## 1
Amino acid sequence: MISSARLRKSENALNHARPYMEQLQNILDHIASEINDYQSPLSQDRPVQRVAIVIFAGNDGLCGAFNLLLYKKLLETLKEYDGKVKSPVFVYPVGRKLVNDIKRTRGVEVMPIPDLFEKKQYAKGATALADELIHRFLEKDVDRVEVIYAHYKSMGTQIISREQLLPWVPQETKALSDKERNKVYIYEPDCEEILETIYPLVIHSTMYRYLLENQTSEQASRILSMQMANDNAIKLLKNLQLEYNKLRQQNITAELMDIVGGAIE
């Protein structure tokens, strides 16, 4: 019941954040249609030597194999980079359940995350973490940033996903309608400066979306796990009750046989 309430809260937060993200992407599409030769420093691809990975996990247990599947995805990613990039790989674990496991993983350096996550200020925490990664990318401390999280598709389906955050790759979006395409916009101060402002905002919103999707997936996984545990407990109780009744019947039958045998003698 608690997880159901938290699931509804997470779903509402995710649905409320989507219009902001969609509008940012719409603005980006409009400006990109005006200029084709501009490339943001946040989207510049370069040889990958240093890698940073953000992995979202749960703070609590009782959610089945949710955290284990995320950790396995991290191991797969590390294996893919093994021998191809400089060691160690910087890992930012958001969620307490995997911190100790990641610390014991070879070739990994666990990086601190903003204290805002512990204070449950998730939007500010996601923004602060994204800003740190943007700064490290621009300073060329890392050449690629990836995010591992659980994509929330439905109540019964959560997909463990891995996405590249930096360098930023333009997302596939729906084509602009003729009405939108024919609108005339006046850009002030100019398109490039607007893009320099929008790119970090898009990365902030994307990081926050990954966090919200992971939180929603965690609660959905916990509901399913606890429901299965409850069903198994009920089934076990029924089996134990049946076994108890059989033993009780056997004892009563044995006592009756003793009484009958004594009366005959």
## 2
Amino acid sequence: MDKKVVLITGVSSGIGLELAKKFIKSGWKVYGVSRKEFSLDGLSHIICDVSSLKQCQETVKKIVEKEGQLNLVINNAGMGISGSIENTSEQDARKIYDVNFFGTFFMCKSALPFLRESKGKIINVSSVASKFYIPFQGFYSATKASVDAISAAMRAETKPYGVKITNVLPGDTKTSFTANRVKQDDGVYNERYTSSIGKMEHDEQNGMSSEYVAKVIFKIANKKRPPLTKTIGVPYKFLLFLAKILPNRFIEWVVSKMYS
């Protein structure tokens, strides 16, 4: 019971891996989950598909039985698909919701009974794309907007029990997420789609480092009064500020010019 216990999803690469390193170095007991076997000195790894409620429940139960408590959950696991709304398959649409939205929901649902006991924290990794609805990335934006919504609702529901919930919105970040994005031939949209995704991938690969994003999240995790929402990256904070004061039609025009 001496060490605080953190559970990080999507721990095998990118932001999740950098987070694990920081918490291990800081003396936390660190558990990480991913769908495939993974090892890191100081990390207790559990194979878990976050799109399965049963696996999430079993994972959390295993951790609490061993450690006696759970203090923090960071829902970092995520995936991306690309393409027009019209040509996105039902299978791909359901898959991205299973991972990005239901994965977050299932892990929160599994962990909340124990986080009430510890008066612990949840940090949900959303995206600036939840506020700017990007053409040919519509389902990614939709899943992250859904994460924003349940984070706010859960925060109101759990506040009387001492649970603190923060939603973080990173901007473009250089990770393996770019290479893992599901792509397709997009028919009549294909020329614009290819140009849009090319721009998106260029921005991602020239974006913030995953180490920097992890550093910001780590600081949030150690605050007594963590923020409700945290946008990561100065340019993105400015863009969100502009989105609040400028007409929606103008914002949509700018995003369209950038990405379609």
## 3
Amino acid sequence: GERTWDEFLTAHAKTLWACDFLTMRVLTAKGLKYVFALVFVHPRTRRAHVSASTTKPDAAWFTQVVQRFVASVPKGMAKPRLLLRDRDDKFAVGDGAFDAALAKIGVRSMPLPHRSPNLNAVVERLIQSIEVECLDHFIVLGTRHLDHLLSEYVDYHNRQRPHSSLGFATPMGRPPSIRAGPVEVRCQERLGGVLKHYYRKAA
């Protein structure tokens, strides 16, 4: 019989990634402009990657995005084989340059049915977190500023932000063990205190 969606995700968990566009208006020398970035996430581990942003998602940009995405996957992880995406018209730019760039490196693009955000819920939730926890706190001045904010947030997400679905571990490691007795808690701040990471001082 046909497999359920959960069974499909489980069967492809090691090599399955998902992506979606993050879109926002930023202030430039020529006024407010829409800027786009692609956010990637590995649903099983919640490891994330974000592309450089652009005001014009063309074929050359898509090719560069795919190359940098694949290069970002560490050697300890399985090579991406399947990538979930929605049916945003931007993916059709350059006669499907995004899907073509993926195919060249052995990754199959899997467009999801129309109006089915729940099938891409992990990356949708990640983008919401990026916006609420980071971008909403800034007036973004151009693509370089946006790229810096996104890079800082994704590094924080991968290395420091606990995830309930991972037993409050991070995508790149387990939380510190709880020791008996008093401990000194320290705070590491990013982006002027917008992002905070609390940790126990090593004995």
## 4
Amino acid sequence: MLIATEGDESTGKSTMALSAPLPIVSLNFDMGWERAIKGAKHELFDGLDIKVIPYDRTKVEPDPTTADITIYELPRPMQLDSEQIRGAKELWGYFLIRIGEAFTDPRVRSIVVDTMTVARRIKADAHLQKLQEDDVKQNKVTTRKQLIQIEYGAINDAIRDIWNTAAGVRKNFVGIHHLTDERMERPNSKGEVVSMLTGNKILEGLNNTYRFV
């Protein structure tokens, strides 16, 4: 079962995801697990063994947890420099280790990524961080400040790989997504083609996510 769920904030997406068949491993970028577990539907989790593991990028060995729900906290790195990315590459690497463990652990029945929207942003930041570090190694006067559109191919490939791996290992997988405003190219009053809001909300992230679910 591969599920992509989307919706506005505080609509119960995370709570629903954590009601998947046990045991569950949840990779939590949004850091909203307390509201999901202790909120209005908290009775869903009565009596369950829930283990929360704070982010520690120095810990790469497998975690032999046997909890009903294991939640890995993956907080987005605080950026003190407005131009130079820090910590995203390390966070993405840690995420890959933990999700890889979950994919290969025969005991784990369900995997949740909360959210895939933020996971994609972290991967993009990690890619930019690597480019910036390469610029520094090459003693360039200025470093890259943002990615260009063509470079998102590698980011999108990484997200596709997660969905494809989930399908390959035949585990339940839930990817949670934020919503964003839909834009379309339309002519304005002057006949110029510009990007305009449609008034609709669409999934924020990989634009062909629906093909994987």
